[in-house]
Amino acid sequence: MPPEEAPTQQAGANRFEPSSFRVIRWSSPVTEGTLDFIPLPGAGSDMVGKPAAAKISADGTYDAGTYGDGDGVVPGKKRVTYSAPLPEDSREAEQLKQSQYAGYQIEPSEIDVQAGSGEINFVLVKPTKKK
Q: Could you tell me which of 87, 120, 85 has the C-alpha nearest to residue 104?
C-alpha cells in the first residue's frame, strides 16, 4: 500500500476567509493606517496560525491578506491592532504632521474569524485612561 501524502503548505494556503471590512470613527470612514491580525492560540492548543495585514483605503475599506494582498484571513481567534501612519519625512517640512488617528485603538480588539463569517466592521476609539 503506498504511503499517504502529507498536505502541502499550498493546500493550506487556500483556507482563508474573505476579508473586506470597514473602519470608522465617529460615523466617518478612517482614511489611513494599517490593521494587523495576530493569531491567538485556541483552547488546548499552542498552534496559532499565520498573521494577516491590511492597509486602509481612503474610503475606510480594506482587504486583508495573509500570503498576498487581499487573499483573506486564516480562520481562528485574532488580536487586531491599528497603526496610524508615521509622519512623512520631508527636508522642507519644519514640523512633521502627525496623523489625526494617532493614539487611537481598534474595537473590537479580538475577533474569531469563522468559515463563511463575511464582513466584520471596526471602530477607532480613544484609549481610556487607567486609574
A: 85
